[in-house]
Design brief:
With about 475 residues, the chain is an alpha/beta fold. The protein folds into 2 domains: about 300 residues, UDP-N-acetylmuramoyl-L-alanine:D-glutamate ligase (3-Layer(aba) Sandwich), CATH 3.40.1190.10; about 140 residues, Protein-Tyrosine Phosphatase, Chain A. Helices cover about 45% and strands about 20% of the residues. Strand 14, helix 11 and strand 15 form a beta-alpha-beta unit. Helix 1 packs parallel to helix 4, helix 3 packs across helix 8 and helix 3 packs across helix 9. The protein is globular. About 45% of the residues are buried. This is tetrahydrofolate synthase. InterPro entries: Folylpolyglutamate_synth, Folylpolyglutamate_synth_CS, Mur-like_cat_sf, Mur_ligase_C, Mur_ligase_C_dom_sf, Mur_ligase_cen.
């Protein structure tokens, strides 16, 4: 990295990390991560962590937990995935992405350990460490180096075998579970719950959303075996009331110790109210372990500072363009309910792309009730469902007359906005189906906005020049 600018160094590190493949040998992920961390002095052992898993709501809940902890005066690390712009978003310190210069210093220290583990794995007939394993090592080292009071760690997938499960979460958070990643979880919801309850550590406090009965039974059993205490939605914490507002929603939340009324959560949808409730209960548990309690002003500040990029996020107006990273039927159901509550659209044009390991038919079926027309496309992800294949599924669900096909996200977004502008009444554009689609759409709109700002500034300068010239006597 010598001689490179921080930006160029980040691009090089990005390429080195994300050129690494994902693997099917899930049982070995933690072993490789643990081996690399051991070479680095086992920094994960110094961390006090809140560990989050579930099928939906993990990232939003993680972000709210981090914001609430920081509002209570604690220094924080936040590890989430995926990212939308820079992978440094995945490794945050006190609410900000890891700085470029800190990333370069960290990579130079961590890279030799990664190379050693790679060599050992290859010699044993195994693969290189995956990109997520490397990111996990980077994140845990960054938090230990910074000496954060709390590391808020979102799992990548599952729990028991996830690369992040090397941490000892003193609070384990379980957001709603549903069937997903059928190639990873064996046995339907039973397999999902068994895998995800694997983050429960001995003596932990478990904070759970309402779960399917089968999942609840599994969680109870794992917690009993590990001497963990479970706090359940409905019994120990709950959403008492909620009212949608243009700024998000105002909610009343009950936790183990108290009820808080008129809490502004600047995010849309009843599922975000549930996420806020789970986040508050998790923070209450984490603070208790430090001899602290929830503070009303800190709770208000923490929620006010909460964001959830890519979740019912408005990225443009005229027409209004909403992006949402719903990537499974459960997430789409939540999206559809929130869209109707928060936006008064008379009609909606959709842009949809889906990754190949997702339930495309289920996603499309869930969106069919709110989309007047759908434009299917394909993202740049190597895991993207081919657009022709997705189009065939869309025609089965929507009928051919309600389906268009675009070869690229840029083309699809342009066609969708044009169609929305041509419609009578209040028409909007909904971009949904995968996080990679949302990321590309956000980038395209941001670039367009920056180009408009540049053009506007150039025009003002030209006008100013003409006015000056006119004011000079001949």
């Amino acid at each position: 990295m010598v001689g490179l600018s921080p930006a160029d160094a980040e691009r090089q590190i990005d390429a080195l990390i994300f050129s690494r493949p994902t693997h099917a040998d899930h049982d070995a992920k933690m072993r490789r991560v643990a081996a690399a961390l051991e070479l680095l002095g086992d920094p994960q052992h110094s961390l006090r962590a809140v560990h989050i898993t579930g099928t939906n709501g993990k990232t939003s809940t993680s972000r709210m937990i981090e914001s609430l902890l920081r509002a209570h005066g604690l220094s924080t690390g936040l590890f989430t995935s995926p990212h939308l712009t820079t992978f440094r978003e995945r490794i945050q310190l006190d609410g900000q992405p890891l700085p470029q210069d800190a990333l370069v210093r960290l990579w130079e220290r961590v890279a030799p350990a990664i190379s050693t583990v790679d060599a050992r794995s290859l010699a044993a007939g195994g693969p290189l460490m995956s990109f997520f394993e490397v990111l996990t090592v980077l994140g845990l080292c960054a938090y230990a180096d910074a000496g954060v009071d709390v590391a808020v760690i979102e799992v990548g997938i599952g729990g028991a075998r996830d690369a992040t499960n090397v941490v000892r979460g003193e609070v384990a958070v379980l957001t709603p579970m549903a069937e997903d990643h059928s190639t990873y979880f064996v046995g339907g919801i039973t397999g999902v719950a068994t895998e995800k309850s694997g983050i429960i550590k001995p003596g932990a406090v478990v904070v759970s959303a309402t779960q399917p009965v089968v999942a609840e039974d599994i969680i109870r059993g794992v917690a009993a075996l590990r001497g963990a205490v479970v706090r359940w939605e409905g019994l120990h914490h709950d959403v008492i009331a909620r009212e949608a507002s243009p700024a998000g929603q105002v909610v009343a939340l009950r936790t183990l110790t108290s009820t808080r009324d008129n809490v502004l959560v600047p995010l849309h949808g009843d599922f975000q109210a549930q996420n806020a409730m789970i986040a508050l209960a998790a923070v209450e548990a984490a603070l208790e372990l430090r001899g602290m309690g929830l503070d009303d002003e800190a709770v208000a500040r923490g929620f006010a500072g909460s964001t959830s990029p890519g979740r019912l996020e408005v990225i443009a107006d005229q027409p209004t363009v909403v992006v949402d990273a719903a990537h499974n039927p459960h997430g789409v159901t939540a999206l559809v309910g929130a869209l109707g509550e928060s936006f008064g659209f008379d009609s909606v044009v959709g842009v949809v792309a889906v990754l190949a390991d997702k339930d495309a038919e289920g996603i499309l079926a869930g969106l069919e009730t709110v989309l007047d027309h759908v434009i299917v496309t394909e993202t740049s992800s190597p895991r993207a469902t081919p657009v022709d294949e997705l189009a065939a599924s869309a025609r089965e669900v929507f009928g051919s007359h309600r389906v268009s096909v675009s070869p690229s996200v840029a083309d699809a977004l342009e066609r969708a906005t044009a169609m929305a502008l041509e419609r009578d009444g209040e028409a909007g554009v909904l971009v949904a189906g995968s996080i990679t689609l949302v990321a590309q759409a956000r980038t395209l709109v941001q670039r367009e906005h920056e180009a408009e700002v540049t053009q506007d500034a150039s025009g003002r300068l030209a006008d100013a020049g003409e006015s000056s010239a006119e004011s000079v006597p001949a």
